[in-house]
Amino acid sequence: MVTQVAKGSGYLTAFRIVAALSMLSVLVQAVTAGQLMGGGTGNMHGSGATAVHVLGLVQLIVAVLLWRPGRGAGWPALVSLAALLLGFVQSMLGGTGQVSLHVPLGMTLFGLSVWLVVWSWRR
Known about the structure:
Elements: H1 4-9, H2 11-37, H3 43-67, H4 75-95, H5 99-121
Helix pairs in contact: 2-3, 2-5, 3-4, 4-5
């Protein structure tokens, strides 16, 4: 549930923008992972992880602002926290070469990102 206060405060708009950017950064990671598996270099994939982490943190902050002062739903903040932590775990697993866990966690992260974007735009 999103209240009129949350809609009018600008927090929902900010969340929509950040969630969309976060989702796009995870999608770019999937594309660069495919290039990496096709024999490309891992430079863009490694650098993209930083964008995913930074945008994940910004998304969490905006989700908390949407929830507390904005009087919006609280669960997007919990999902954003889970996505941020999952992103760190997923990145660590990729860095250690554990692709059998890295890839499914990346897909889960993308699913969570899409869910948050869809939810934010249906309000």
